[in-house]
Structures are given as C-alpha cells and as structure tokens.
Amino acid sequence: MRRWLVTGGVGFIGHHLTRALLARGDSVTVLDDFSDAPYPTRLKRRHAEVLSREHAGRLDVVEGCVTSRETAARLTAGTTGVIHLAGLAGVRPSFADPARYSVVNIEGTATLLDAAQRAGTPLFVFASSSSVYGNATPLPAGEDAPAIVPESPYAASKRAAELVVSAMIRKTPEMRCPLLRFFTVYGPWQRPEMAITSFLRDVMAGRPITVFGDGSMRRDFTHVDDIVRGILAAADVAPAGVRAYNLGSGAPVTLSELVTAMGRAAGRPIQVERAPVPLGDVEATFADISRARSELGWQPRIALDEGLATVVSWLASERTASATS
Ligand SMILES: NC(=O)c1ccc[n+]([C@@H]2O[C@H](COP(=O)([O-])OP(=O)(O)OC[C@H]3O[C@@H](n4cnc5c(N)ncnc54)[C@H](O)[C@@H]3O)[C@@H](O)[C@H]2O)c1
C-alpha cells in the first residue's frame, strides 16, 4: 500500500488531495499545525474530522510544525513520498509578518526535504506558486523564466524555497522533485479570504463586492479538482531531479469578466465597489501549461463557469446547513 506524508493536509488544497489519495486506497499521514492564519483553525478541524470519519484507519493526523526536525524525521521514514503543501499562503498578509513567512516556507521546506533525503524517500513534491513570476516575466509565463523579481515576501519565500530545493537535490539526484506552481486555486472550501469565495459569499448575501483596481487585472483561476489531478500526475510521472511545472488554467480572465461570470453562476446582479490595488498584487497571471501537458499528461478540465457553479452550490449548502442548525 502506498503511504504518503501530506503536509498542510487539512488546509484547502491539502484536504482535497488527502481525500483523493484515501479514495484510491492509499494511506496518508497529515502534518499540519492547524494555525489560526490566514483563516480560522476551526475550518481545518472540520476538514480533519470529516476526513477521519470518511476514512478511519488509513488516515493519521499529526499536529505539529514543519520546522521541527524531530517530527520531520519521524514522519518521513518509510513513506512513498512527501507532498509538501504546508505553508503560510497569501500575498497581502506576508507583508505583516515576513519573518514568519520565511521561516515556515523556506526553513520548513528545507527541514522536510532534508528529513526525506535522510530517510531515502524517492519523491518530494513542493507546492510553489504563480506569484514567483511577479510582474517582470513575459506572459504566458514559462517555467524557465528567471523569476527573480518577487512582488511580495510570500512570493520571495516560495522562490527561495524552490532554489533551496534545487540546491539540496544535488546530493540525491535520483530523487524526483517536482516544483508545482499553482495559479489562483478555487473551488469548494477555498480559503475564505480569497477572491471568488469571499465575492460569492457577499453576492449570495446581497452585499456589494469590493474589486481592486479598475477590473482589468487578470488572473488564471484554476479549479481545485484540476490541481489535485495535477499533483497526482506529478507524483506519478515527474522525472528524477528538480523540475518546475505550471498548474494553471492557461485561460486568464479579467476581474470584470470574473464578476460577470459570478453573476451568471449566482443568478443575481452584482454590485461592485472599487478599492486601490493592494501592495504585492501582480497585474496579471497567465500560465504556459505546455510542459505539464506534454510531460505530465495533465490538462485542466474545469472551465470557469462550471467551476463557479461548484462554489455556488457549496456555499448554498453551507447556508442551508447553518440556517437549520
Ligand atoms: N490556494 C492557492 O491559490 C495557492 C496558489 C499558489 C500556491 N499555493 C500554495 O499551496 C499550498 C496550500 O495552499 P492552500 O490554499 O490550501 O492554503 P491553506 O492555508 O488552506 O493550507 C496550508 C496549510 O498549511 C498549514 N500550515 C501553515 N503553517 C504550518 C506550519 N508551520 N507547520 C505545519 N503546517 C502549517 C496550515 O494550517 C494549512 O492547513 C500553500 O503552500 C500555498 O502557498 C496555494
């Protein structure tokens, strides 16, 4: 039986991935600190409870920090692979605590990879981000771009972690180590502070939404089910050594187009208020996904309208559940 260590496995992307691994019969150890940032611990507890209920026996959830060497050594031993999703996410909050972002995202990654190397683990998957491309990379962004002008401490921490991983792998060149650059991931149980979930919550409650800038910023939104399939594909077929892959839709939309699509999905008119673009937000993200297509046999399947419908029906079921409880 395949046995995975999934860090951040009760977070948004992590719990979807953990469910997919358990559903195919694998066993999973989750390492997560259930931190209260950038969104409440209770949502992570809920994910852990639901997963434990659904898959008792093949899931072990360990509460701990990715920077603990002892924990990393104990949990990496004997695993099929480490899928390292834990980290402090979010561009804007990274300006409030850049030191903590650096510790968790860089030191935490080095600690886990070091433990995996010592344990002889053949695979280490790292969750990186489209934010590494900043504003200086020609679009669509390709994986070989230098990505050396990050716009936020978060972006810098992800790029730094990628570079640390690239250097460390020289010691174990046979190890497979895909660096997966996710492009704005959305879907049911998305982090509550992120665009789409926060917008649709407001829309469904009849409140106006706040859009940053004039609506021309572009984002490459990617459904979480596509991201999970991409992680599984990379875990299965990524080659030896370090290799970066963009996991994005490859079809960016402007925020104005997103608002129109959300109105269609929610079946309601949307009232928009405007605010200045926050520090660290890039002008556009746009993935070149040809490498993931050709080398991983992956491509996104869920178009924006279909994906938004999954968020609307999840939020509607949440509203019904809270109204009846
Ligand atoms: N969601 C996106 O759009 C997106 C885009 C690009 C990259 N990513 C990256 O993907 C990963 C997962 O993102 P997500 O959206 O699911 O975020 P998330 O915050 O829901 O998940 C991250 C998980 O890591 C855990 N964690 C944080 N610090 C930890 C620590 N010190 N020790 C152990 N666990 C810790 C959190 O409790 C959380 O459960 C992150 O690394 C994020 O940077 C996400």
Your description of this structure?
It is built from ten helices and 13 strands. With 325 residues, the chain is an alpha/beta fold. It has one domain (3-255, 259-324): Rossmann fold, CATH 3.40.50.720. The model has no long low-confidence stretch (mean pLDDT 96). The structure holds nicotinamide-adenine-dinucleotide. Residues 7-8, 10-14, 31-35, 44, 65-66, 85-89, 104, 108, 127, 129, 182, 184-185, 191 line the site of nicotinamide-adenine-dinucleotide (NAD).
Q: What is the CATH topology classification name?
A: Rossmann fold
Q: Tell me, briefly, the overall form.
A: globular
Total count of domains: 1
Radius of gyration: 19 Å
Proportion of residues in extended strands: 15-25%
pLDDT under 50 segments (min length 5)?
none
Determine and state the CATH class.
Alpha Beta
**What compounds are bound to the protein?**
nicotinamide-adenine-dinucleotide
Structural class: alpha/beta
Amino- and carboxy-terminal Cα gap: 40 Å
What are the key terms here?
alpha/beta; Rossmann fold; two-stranded parallel ribbon; 13 strands; globular; binds nicotinamide-adenine-dinucleotide
Short description:
Helices cover 41% and strands 17% of the residues. It is α/β, with parallel strands linked by helices and 325 residues long. Strand 2, helix 2 (41-54) and strand 3 (59-63) form a beta-alpha-beta unit.
Task: Please give the structural blueprint.
Blueprint: E1 3-7, H1 12-23, E2 27-32, H2 41-54, E3 59-63, H3 69-76, E4 81-84, H4 98-119, E5 124-129, H5 153-168, E6 176-182, E7 185-186, H6 197-204, E8 209-212, E9 218-219, E10 222-223, H7 224-237, E11 241-247, E12 253-254, H8 255-266, E13 272-275, H9 290-296, H10 304-324
Parallel strand pairs: 1-2, 1-4, 2-3, 4-5, 5-6, 6-11, 7-10, 8-13
Antiparallel strand pairs: 9-12
This protein binds nicotinamide-adenine-dinucleotide (NAD).
